[in-house]
Amino acid sequence: MPAPPIRVLVAKPGLDGHDRGAKIIARALRDAGMEVIYTGLRQTPEMIVSAAIQEDVDCIGLSILSGAHNAIVPRIAALLREQHAEDVLLVLGGTIPAQDEPLMKASGVAAIFGPGTPLEATIDFIRTHTKPRTALT
Questions:
Q1: Residue 93: strand, helix, or coil
Q2: Which residues contact 98 (CB under 8 A, 6 or more apart)?
Q3: How far apart are alpha carbons 35 and 8 in whole angstroms?
Q4: Per-residue pLDDT in tens (0 to 9) along the chain, 137 residues
Q5: Residue 9 contacts by C-beta under 8 Å, 6 or more apart in sequence?
């Protein structure tokens, strides 16, 4: 029996109202055979982590263009730890200045995908870095 597909939650935290990139990556992940849950715009860290746990996802992909990543991402990572869900892969996409990348990585972000990153690079990273699920028999 084949392994179940990778489950990815794509989220747009904060007040950022631009979701074109999030929708593009969600479609690319789906087309690559992953199950994608898209939470929509203006999600709080609490809403994102709650949805990730309820949906039993393997990965959370955050899309942030608003500049609020220094406040939002550490909060999401802390909530994942509080919920004993630190095994959920956390990746970040959007406009993240290079000087902020060390803080993002220290917070628990596994990878940062900036504008222009090939979709295949993101797909390959998620495939490579999620823990395999076992099929229920």
A1: strand
A2: none
A3: 6
A4: 788 999 999 999 988 788 898 999 999 999 999 999 999 899 999 999 999 999 999 999 999 988 899 999 999 999 999 999 999 999 999 999 999 999 999 999 999 999 999 999 999 999 999 987 665 54
A5: 36, 37, 38, 39, 48, 51, 52, 55, 57, 59, 60, 61
